[in-house]
């Protein structure tokens, strides 16, 4: 990246971004330099949401969300369909399960699709990424 002169254009750079993400608990960012006039930084979300707040309701809902996300990750040790995940969580709405739980876990690199070239396939299953 330094050779392409994308780094430290304004006395800031990749190391600063990496340090800030590490302090926040995020995984290492990915840099895509395939574009002609710009580069892209892919930042994966962290599962450890550290909110300092006096509001007990916010803290409870974040803790519950974290527990649910961890539960989905553990449940998907073998490939699981959306229906199986919904039944396991006791939820009924596919849209909410997909957008609140599955998509963030895929974006965060915790789950992968078994058929990534066809994300809307009825045979689609989700599997935990082994690290």
Write a structural description.
This protein is of the alpha+beta class and about 130 residues long. Helix content is about 40%, strand content about 10%. The chain contains 4 helices and 5 strands. The strands form 2 sheets. A 3-stranded antiparallel β-sheet has the order 3-5-4. It is globular, with a radius of gyration of 18 Å.
Side by side, the strands of the main sheet go 3-5-4
Low-confidence stretches: 50-54
Elements, N to C (H/E) = HEEHEHHEE
* Main sheet: strands, sense, barrel: 3 strands, antiparallel
The strand count comes to 5
Tell me the strand percentage band.
Answer: 5-15%
What is the rounded distance between the termini? 27 Å
Shape: globular
Give Rg in angstroms. 18 Å
Number of helices: 4
Q: Structural class, from secondary structure content? A: alpha+beta
The overall pLDDT average reads 77
Give the % helix: 40-55%
Task: Give the SSE layout.
Layout: H1 14-24, E1 30-32, E2 40-42, H2 56-75, E3 80-81, H3 82-89, H4 94-107, E4 111-113, E5 125-128
Antiparallel strand pairs: 1-2, 3-5, 4-5
Quick summary:
The chain is an alpha+beta fold and 131 residues long.
Descriptive keywords:
three-stranded antiparallel β-sheet, globular, 4 helices, 131 residues, alpha+beta, single chain, two-stranded antiparallel ribbon
């Amino acid at each position: 990246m330094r050779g392409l002169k994308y780094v430290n254009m304004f006395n800031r750079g990749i190391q600063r971004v990496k340090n800030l993400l590490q302090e926040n608990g995020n995984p290492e960012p990915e840099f895509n330099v395939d574009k002609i006039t710009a580069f892209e930084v892919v930042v994966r979300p962290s599962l450890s949401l550290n909110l300092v707040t006096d509001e007990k309701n916010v803290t409870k809902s974040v803790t519950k969300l974290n527990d649910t996300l961890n539960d989905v990750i553990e449940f998907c040790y073998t490939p699981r369909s959306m229906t199986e995940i919904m039944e396991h969580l006791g939820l009924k709405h596919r849209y909410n399960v997909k957008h609140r739980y599955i998509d963030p876990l895929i974006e965060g690199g915790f789950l992968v699709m078994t058929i990534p070239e066809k994300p809307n396939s009825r045979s689609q299953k989700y599997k935990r990424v082994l690290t």
